[in-house]
## 1
Amino acid sequence: MKKLILLTGILIPLSFYAQVENRATLFYTYYAPSSNNVLNSIEQSNIDFQYYLKSKVIAKKIKWDNNVAYRSVSVDDAVTKNLYDLSYTSSFVYTKKGKNFIIGYARLSVRSQYNTTLTSDALFPWFSFGYMRQSQTNKSIRWGAGINYNNDFGKNVLLPFFIFNYETQKMRFNATLPSSILLLFKENKKLYYGLNATLTSSIFDVEDNSYEKLQILNANFFAFTQIKLFNKLWFEVKPGITLRRNFNFLQNNFEPLNADSKNRLDPNFVVTSDLLYKIN
């Protein structure tokens, strides 16, 4: 039987625009059986840490948030790499008038292979800018749209994003397309549950004789349960499936090494669990 995948970490990155509550993940595990294709099986392990600085309010109209994050990634079997991702993120919400908001998000990541010479090729910027509006008739509804620039899905990619948030005392729905969808039900003050779909992509600068960059893309669908353990400490378990999982080998110009190669791995079963500290 092929090797299994086990990922452990300290934080699940959160989508800024869909974020309703600040939270830090103190312990995170990810488990799935190996996926197979022409690459055979892939084993991957992550260790993550993220720290949210206290929100700042500027001139009573701008809410400003900052955080730093670190992720260690180990990929073994058909691909053998030890990678890291160090990033700084700054975001703001500007109350333009009444229930109209301007939103912005900037992130700079350094992603590379360990023990390699650090160059500008390891820098991966991400910028988003958009508009959000709260419904005039229903304060539970917010929607928005904007444009995103990134180097995670390719070189200098421009993508539109769309936001729809709906929240009541017992239910929350957050959609930030194309990156995440969350449906959460609050059974009581100690038990939450729901569904979550995510799409993530990261490109790393590597030193290899046959390729210069490695892209790891994951699309997952989860059911989840959150249980309050004590005060602000919660435990979450998320069983689900991988809808798509790619390891793409790129040249330095972000073009695929071989356009005819098929690096998509088979969908499989996934279980994640994490210990959450809900800040507010």
Note: Residues 1-21 have pLDDT under 50 and may be disordered.
## 2
Amino acid sequence: MATRHAESRSFVQKCVFLAFLFAIQVAGGEICDKTKCAGVLKYYEGLGCTPVYKNPNDCCAESYNCTHLDNLSRDKCYVNGHEYSDGETLRPEHANPCDIGCKCILFNNEASFVCAGFDCAFISGGENCFHRSTHDSCCPSTVPTCLKEGEKRATCEVDGKVYLDGEYFSPKSDPNLDCYCMPGYTGENIEPFCKKINHPHCSPLFTNGGSIYQKCAPVFYDNQNPQTDCSYVTRCQNSEDVVIHNHDHTKSISDEEDKVCKFGNMTMHIGDELDKGTNYDSLCVKCVCEVPPIPTCRRLPDSECDINYAYPSIKLL
């Protein structure tokens, strides 16, 4: 009987130990999904800001250190830490395929790169033909790739989505890669399928340096994710802007000096938002200080914004 009790205790101890190991394995195997973090993560990455964490092992930053921007010259252009003077042309080693004829231009005492406009024409490939995109060209090839009789167009499955041969994708594991689906892709994001871009696609300093110096905020559509998407426009301070204070008033300002958002010459604490006012460029945009020092601004969905009132020149049918 004693032996049976001993075996029973031993079995229970083993079960508890295995459960403990499983808990450790699950906890240790947790993946940090930054797409669920607050704040304008993609914008911060484009600016080269450094994340600041409350605890060393935290997934999401509580603020970002962007003080390096204070040392930049307004009359210079910047790309990946490289400085250009007024009139200089973007060098090939710093350019992406769609950076066509880019030149550093000084306007109103603030410099940014100005590039030539482009428009990729849509050309039908015809039956069983398609136009393949590559890393070396901004637009798809004008010469169609045609499939032989019975041949199927290759596909690539990435992050749960299927892409066709010649289509562009950007893997969540490394957004700084430009990738194109090609025959032979097995899930490895290496050349010739993927190539590291020369500078981030939505680098705020590249074509909109003035908005950085004026402490404007990026604006996203209501269906965009500020953690992974590029903003479509910036919102700058206007004369009607007022801060709605929603922060914890029990905390002193000195305790939160490094945890405030700067918008123009205004200061916003975490939780504060801008009054939408009546200005046409701000009425349908909600801006909240989530992760300092840059507010998160979102375009309100049409269901929450009277477009006829916000944009009197636009009339809905």
Note: The chain has three domains: 35-114, 129-196, 217-303.
## 3
Amino acid sequence: MRKERIKGKQSKNTKNQSVLPKSINFIVGRVLPVLVFLGAGFFFAPYASMQFQNNDVKALSNQAQTVMFYKSDCSHCQKAYPVVFWHNVLNFQQPDKQIQTINVQNPNNAHYVTDYQVQETPTFMSIKNGSDRMVTTDKKQILNFAERDK
């Protein structure tokens, strides 16, 4: 004998289903996605900035005191750039504390390599004194170099 289903509303047995408390539902449904989004942004923002900004720098800043010459595909630069990125974010209202970044891999900025005799990347240079330079990926050294003239 063949059983046939009757189309239409079927009753659900809710007694056997586990229901999360409303507070947990809210956290999982609303708060967790925001935290994941912010965490991903924290991780990817410096990388996106490194790849897509600094495409055509006309001149060294007259407000910043330090410049970082980098190449976006340089593994050492990829380690140092987030330090500079977050330093600039934290000091965004103080232009004299900013570290100007110039991607010398970009054809528009390639002349900086010869103009300032950049031999390695990342190179940090004092804008006031071009002979004052440093090549490093160490966070403390980068921040000390950027803050010493202030």
Note: The radius of gyration is 26 Å.
## 4
Amino acid sequence: MNATLDIELLRTFDTVARMGKFRLAAEHLHKSPAAISVHIQRLETIAGGRLLERDNQSVSLTALGQRLLMSAAELLQTHDRVMGELHGPHVIGSVQLGMPDEYAAHVIGDILPIFTASWPNVVLEVTTAPSFTLRDHLQQGKLDLALLTQPRAAGSDALVLTSTTPVWVGSAVLPATLNDPVPLALYAADCPYREAMISTLTTAGRPWRVVLDSASSQAIRACVEAGLAVTLMDRARVTERMVIREDLPIMPDHEVVLVRPPARESNEAVELLINSIQRYFRL
């Protein structure tokens, strides 16, 4: 039987795989959970097998799903680039975008090239800063759009890209037991993970000390991998030279979101960039 892959079905599958939950994918795509299930079932029929393993909490990819996901991402990018080539030259504008340092390499390296190729007459200006600083910049009208991290459900004005449970990480060569005070590699002031580390350890009665205080995610990573300190990190960003520390307090869930300034009229360029980041952002 000849079958044709539907772009909408692939988009749904890609979103479910990225978000990790049917409910979040439904909210993200503005569809009902039932519609999301139907899309996945139709795609599984075409693929000839199960793409996702489901439980009450989340979904995970099967081996077939992992193979399809890699091809689906390439196909979606090609589709969007072709659509951009058809309509892109007609959109003119500018966007001031802010994001934390830890997501800059992914967004700048993987997402913005696709966007600029599709919409060549949109001028981008990118700023990196801690998440809470970016919120201030939005309030002050210095940004058109910001990608940031915040505690879950911290603001109703946010468009959720994905949810994350940050984990404590240390070097693979750190001693098995951390002695107090806990050595910390702290993110810059105004970072939610910095506040979460300090408040959680303080509440648990664990003394701590600062080994590194830096706005650079690369410096934080180097400090942890060298065995000098522990820090808080998205689970998906844990490197091969790190281990997750289960002997420190459990952290609350956070989410990665897109936020626009309050009471500012949107424009087509901003909406197009939002769509691109929604489609391609991954932890």
Note: The CA atoms of residues 115 and 273 lie 7 Å apart.
